[in-house]
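Note to self: keep these together.
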Amino acid sequence: MSSQYFLIHPENPQARSIVQIADIVRRGGVIVYPTDSVYAIGCHIGDKQALERIRVIRQLDKQHNFTLVCRDLSELANYAKVDNSAFRILKASTPGAFTFILNATSEVPKRLMHPKRKTIGIRVPDSPIVKALLDELGEPMMSVTLIMPNDEYPLTDPYDIRQTMERHVDAIVDGGYCGHEPTTVIDMTDVSPQIMRQGTGDFSSF
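Structure:
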């Protein structure tokens, strides 16, 4: 298997290519795509086989929190329980380079949740490519950072990504260089938010 390769403009994504990429996701494909922090691996929210393929590629255990990448806050509220104070923080910090750990609603497939805590990572990226793709899909995508087993840092160079990943995924979306630092992860399941991982997003003002 060799993946399809799409060179996409980071500010003005080509509509025809976005339609093709969304179609690959809908059909159960696994894709590599750029975000506002780093490159990520994504698949359709309801596809169990695609999820297992990502687990194998990343060598993830069952405890790993997957992230739902959403278009906006109204979509996010379908999948996570958000009270008023959490909503204010989310509204002020999205779209942006943050992943929020929230209590999952019954809309979230069990296999995506943290098995013990019933939580889900939720993210609204500030990326024209991701927004166009999610608009075309009409629903969130399931996603994890593109960091290979035994690597300390995510893959950032589109050339390296293509060399490393083209036999493992169905499509590679080249949107140029992203950053090399993943999102800042904020646990919102308690009364006061806790920073779990300091990354690209600056949470100090919240």
